[in-house]
Design a protein that fits this description.
Mean pLDDT: 82
Pfam family, one: ABA_WDS
Organism: Dioscorea cayennensis subsp. rotundata
Distance between the termini: 51 Å
Low-confidence stretches: none
Number of helices: 3
InterPro entries: ABA_WDS (IPR003496)
Structural class: mainly alpha
Protein name: Abscisic stress-ripening protein 5-like
Radius of gyration: 22 Å
Family: Belongs to the abscisic acid and water stress-induced protein family.
Helix content: over 70%
C-alpha cells in the first residue's frame, strides 16, 4: 500500500530516527540537547546497574538466611546480577553515544579538523 502511494515503508528496529533526520541540519543547541539526552540515559543505566547489584547482594543474603527458599533466592540473585551487567552495558553504550555526539558537534562547528596526511 505505501509503495503504491509513492511512500517508502521501512521496518527497522534500530536507527529509525536517523533516517528521518538525515536531511535536517543540526544546530549547536541540537547537539547540546542530544548530549544531555545521552548523559541522562547514561546515568539511568548506572543507577540501574547499582540497584540491580544491591538487589543481587540482598538475595544472596536471603539465600543464606532462609535455607527453605534458598534455591529461589539464588535464582533471583543470578537474574539480578544479569540485569546489572546488562544495565552497565547500556550505560557504556550511552557513554559512547555521548562522546560520538560531542565529536559530531565539534566537527560541525569547525573546531576539529581531520588531517589525513
Amino acid at each position: 500500500m505505501a509503495e503504491e502511494e509513492g511512500q517508502k515503508h521501512h521496518h527497522h528496529l534500530f536507527h529509525h530516527k536517523k533516517e528521518e533526520e538525515e536531511g535536517k541540519v543540526m544546530t549547536g543547541e541540537d547537539y547540546e540537547k542530544e548530549q544531555k539526552h545521552h548523559k541522562h540515559k547514561e546515568h539511568l543505566g548506572e543507577m540501574g546497574a547499582a540497584a540491580a547489584g544491591a538487589f543481587a547482594l540482598y538475595e544472596k543474603h536471603q539465600a543464606k538466611k532462609d535455607p527453605e527458599n534458598a534455591h529461589r533466592h539464588k535464582i533471583e540473585e543470578e537474574v539480578a546480577a544479569a540485569v546489572g551487567v546488562a544495565s552497565g552495558g547500556y550505560a557504556f553504550h550511552e557513554h559512547h553515544e555521548k562522546k560520538e555526539s560531542k565529536k559530531e558537534a565539534e566537527e560541525a562547528s569547525g573546531k576539529k579538523h581531520h588531517h589525513l596526511f
